[in-house]
Design brief:
The structure holds three protein chains of three kinds. The longest helix of chain A is centred in the last third of the chain and has 18 residues. Chain A is built from ten helices and ten strands. Chain A is of the alpha/beta class. The two termini of chain B are 15 Å apart. Classes of the chains: A alpha/beta, B mainly alpha, C mainly alpha. Chains in contact: A-C, B-C.
Chain lengths: 235, 315, 338
């Protein structure tokens, strides 16, 4: 069974600065995969390489289709949703408008999609007209997740979802992510500094350092690994 | 040391050529090259502002207007020596430039462009209001004596002599502490402040100097125009010409200024002799199109071209 | 790395930005006060009323051009110095269409479509390639366009006066002792309708939402699949369309068509845009109306300000606003450099 997402020797750069030096990874459909590593390892860049928001080279295949030449809009249309670091909510727009933007690439009415989203995030329905910038950090993160989910993506790219959130909210967030994964079959690739959390939620993981994959395996394997335990799990 | 000799040599060549031209060219063409000299000063002024202190101005025609009117009014009322009027124009415009530079401190990019644009449109309107003193729509004419003196050849000589003086002045300023401060401001304001450069002083100073240069250009502009200063002579188009000259010149290259001034001073006249587009309107078309092309193809102007050529030559 | 703090700061900042930093209520109060003052003045003096009406009419034209400037600025951060000339050129196109036999309103709508196309094409061909390098370069391109368009129009149609039929006729209504030309009502209504339609586009359509998103946060907009570059081009197209409306409505009040039609109006439009806030569409329209009425009234009632001083007065307004409250009445963006 070919993976939903395959990266082979992907390089990426910001202007003259190389961020990825040949990253290879695979994400099976319906799984949750974590990307760990220290700051500056290239975790965010990896996600951006997938969603087409950074200059990259190398082979990227999504559901068998090459993504190499496609830009962000095309990637979105293929079913890749990217929740960037800092959530990427449009603070100046309302909750409803943010959600509507999530399904931008869809034609026609998105009422059924909205209903489903409100099923997972019931409190959002009441706040439709509220300006997104006035939501709390946690609520904005939920909104970002909801927005990503509106257009029924096949792959969700989550960048540092726990950043700036209270532990209770983080737990809730990951619970919803797991629910989306189990009930809707949503494949998730999550970048997390909080290795504990990530490995608990994920089935498998990759450890990135200085733009390269240095370690990979199932969550159990990674949790048991000495190096990982020392550097990222703190014991 | 070699490059210094080369520079001096090229300067000498230019000077020699300029001295010889009046003997070769017709009177009309002499007046054209004089125009180039006039624009040289104005573009040099703007280049100092934009290239060396990173502030944009689409309103230098306003300073030319002030300088021009200074000369015209002084000549008309007191028959002042024309050189003296130019010095006074320099001084007045320096002060006005400082005054404009003060509020400009708080503005950036697009907003500064906007304000200077509005300045360029507004200043020429002022003579219409104080028409008794400033001649209103009919303008101000220099004295008879002045008109006699300011022949095309005279203007040519004075314009280029003044250009040379201002060129040297600019060179001296830009070499020294002030110039280093200017460059620091242009490259990074944060770094400049961190290294102790007092931003407000230098940025305002840049405006003053830049305006003063344009003021002198304005004096000669009026003298070249038979000593006639009127609002219509200083429309927004003049400011646009200066800006375009600076854009073609590229930032930070004194040689580029010569090219930019020549472009602005000569292109309209050159294009008027071209058949189809040869009308007055055709000049605008060529001018506008040329600038757009330069921006698309060579955004750093002549200076950029030189830099690129230098890189190719492996220097 | 204080990531937790920074995101908390960010949400705080977002919240205060959303509330308009508390200035909006004051501004609304001021505007209401102005409206009341105008009403009272109009009731007491027929001249005042006429000047106000005329001011609102020309002000709406300024506002339309100002709105065009704001749209372009929001989308691409470029101050389009050629906006006025573009508007003038499209007005000439309308003139030509009428010469070729179209009725006024047929020419009107055709011109709007042509203007939209023209604006889009200009952005794609001339602005986009230069924008990658720097905004200033793009601004210089607009300056070049100013000159180029001026030349082209002069070349094709010549600089002499042309006569354009006024779609509103010369009828004058009398309300009490106040005479109101139908022309002014027409100008005002047409501009306001156009502005409202554009507003509706932005507010209620998916495309408008996409355009807003692209202008506000291009990076985030790209994440959801908005074709940011095309949205910017459309912004320019819409701006050109609004400019065309401004030009066409400016013309009837000038009675004759000549190439310098829009030049003073551009300055007033800049003043209006700055007054309203360069990134606020509503501000641009309100600013335009304010400037239109203010200039009219000042010329009449303030002896020192004669009609030649209108441009300098507008300049003074621009300067004053930028020094006192750079973001204008309704704007949010910071004007200063770091």
């Amino acid at each position: 069974m070919t993976a939903l997402l395959e990266l082979e020797d992907v390089e990426a750069r910001y202007g003259p600065v190389h961020a990825l030096h040949g990253v290879s990874l695979a994400v099976e459909e319906g799984s949750v995969v974590a990307v760990l590593g220290p700051n500056g390892a290239g975790k965010t860049t990896t996600l951006r390489a997938v969603s087409g928001t950074v200059r990259r080279s190398g082979r990227i295949r999504f559901a068998g289709r090459p993504l190499d030449r496609l830009g962000a809009a095309a990637a979105a249309r293929l079913g890749i949703a990217h929740v960037p670091e800092g959530r990427g909510t449009f603070s100046e727009l309302t909750v409803w408008e943010n959600l509507r933007l999530g399904a931008y690439t869809r034609r026609g009415s998105i009422q059924p999609e909205l209903e489903r989203v409100f099923a997972y995030f019931p409190w959002l329905a009441e706040r439709k007209r509220q300006q997104a910038g006035t939501l709390s950090g946690g609520e904005q993160q939920m909104l970002a997740l909801a927005r990503a989910f509106v257009h029924r993506p096949r792959l969700l790219l989550l960048d540092e979802p726990s950043l700036g959130l209270a532990p209770v909210l983080v737990a809730e967030l990951f619970r919803i992510v797991r629910e989306l994964n189990e009930r809707e079959g949503l494949t998730v690739l999550v970048v997390e500094q909080n290795a504990h959390l990530a490995l608990q939620a994920a089935e498998a993981g990759y450890v990135l350092e200085a733009g390269r994959v240095v370690l990979s395996g199932t969550s159990a394997e990674l949790t048991a690994d000495d190096a990982v335990r020392r550097s990222y799990l703190g014991y | 040391m070699r490059s210094r000799i080369l520079v001096l040599f090229s300067l000498a060549v230019v000077a020699a050529v300029l001295c010889l031209l009046p003997f070769i060219l017709s009177d009309y063409n002499v007046s054209l090259v004089a125009q180039v000299g006039i624009f040289f000063m104005a573009v040099l002024g703007l280049d100092i502002l934009t290239g060396y202190s990173g502030q944009i101005s689409i309103g230098h025609g306003a300073f030319m207007c002030i300088g021009g009117y200074t000369t015209a009014v002084l000549s008309r009322d007191h028959n002042t020596n024309l050189f003296v009027t130019m010095l006074i124009a320099f001084a007045i415009c320096f002060v006005v430039g400082l005054l404009v530079g003060l509020p400009a401190l708080r503005l950036s990019g697009a907003y500064l462009a906007l304000v200077t644009f509005a300045l360029a449109v507004s200043v020429p309107q002022l003579p219409l209001k104080w028409s008794s003193f400033l001649g209103g729509r009919d303008g101000v004419q220099t004295s008879e004596a002045a008109q006699q003196t300011a022949t095309n050849l005279w203007v040519y000589g004075v314009a280029w002599a003044a250009s040379a003086i201002l060129f040297v002045l600019a060179w001296l300023i830009l070499r020294g502490r002030v110039g280093r401060a200017f460059r620091a401001v242009r490259d990074s304001e944060i770094a400049a402040v961190a290294s102790g450069v007092e931003l407000p002083v230098y940025k305002t100073l840049a405006f003053g100097i830049s305006a003063a240069f344009a003021g002198v250009a304005g004096s000669l502009f009026v003298l070249a125009n038979n000593g006639f200063a009127a609002p219509d002579e200083f429309g927004i188009f003049l400011s646009l010409q200066i800006l375009i000259g600076a854009a073609v010149a590229g930032l930070g290259s004194l040689w580029g200024v010569l090219v930019g001034a020549a472009f602005v001073g000569l292109l309209p006249s050159v294009s008027s002799s071209v058949p189809v587009i040869g009308s007055a309107h055709g000049q605008d078309v060529v001018f506008g199109a040329a600038v757009i092309l330069v921006m698309l193809v060579l955004p750093e102007g002549f200076a950029g071209l030189v830099a690129r050529l230098r890189k190719l030559a492996g220097a | 790395m204080a990531t937790a703090e920074t995101s908390r700061l960010e949400s705080l900042r977002n919240r205060s930005a959303a509330l308009g930093a508390g200035s909006t209520p004051i501004v609304m109060l001021l505007l209401v006060a102005v409206a009341v003052a105008l009403l009272v003045g109009s009731l007491r003096s027929a001249t005042f009323a006429q000047l106000t009406v005329q001011g609102l009419a020309v002000g709406s034209v300024y506002g339309s051009l100002a709105l065009a400037l704001v749209l372009v600025y929001r989308a691409t951060h470029v101050v389009n110095f050629a906006q006025g000339e573009l508007a003038m050129a499209t007005t000439y196109i309308a003139y030509q269409l009428i010469q070729w036999g179209l009725s006024y309103w047929e020419a009107f709508f055709a011109t709007l479509a042509i203007a939209f196309l023209l604006g889009t094409v200009l952005e794609v061909t001339l602005i986009r390639p230069v924008l990658h390098r720097s905004v200033i370069a793009a601004v210089i391109v607009t300056v070049g366009l100013f000159v180029l368009i001026d030349g082209v129009v002069d070349w094709i149609w010549g600089g002499d006066f042309k006569f354009m039929p006024s779609p509103f006729g010369t009828r004058i209504y009398h309300v009490g002792s106040v005479s109101i030309a139908r022309l002014y009502i027409g100008m005002f209504v047409v501009v306001i309708i156009s502005v409202l339609l554009v507003w509706a586009l932005f507010r209620f359509t998916k495309l408008g939402l996409g355009m807003r998103a692209a202008a506000l946060r291009p990076a985030e907009a790209a994440f959801v699949g908005v074709r940011v570059e095309w949205m910017l081009a459309l912004g320019w197209g819409l701006a050109a369309l609004l400019g065309a409306v401004a030009g066409l409505m400016a013309e009837p009040s000038q009675f004759t068509l000549e190439p310098t039609l829009m030049q003073p109006i551009l300055v007033y439009a800049f003043a209006a845009a700055v007054l309203g806030g360069l990134d606020s569409p509503a501000g641009a329209v309100v600013g335009g109306l304010l400037i239109g009425v203010a200039l009219n009234l000042m010329v009449q009632y303030v002896p020192a300000i004669t009609s030649e001083l209108q441009a300098p007065t507008a300049f003074a307004v621009i300067l004053a606003v930028l020094l006192i409250k750079p973001s204008g009445l309704f704007g949010h963006r910071e004007v200063r450099r770091v």
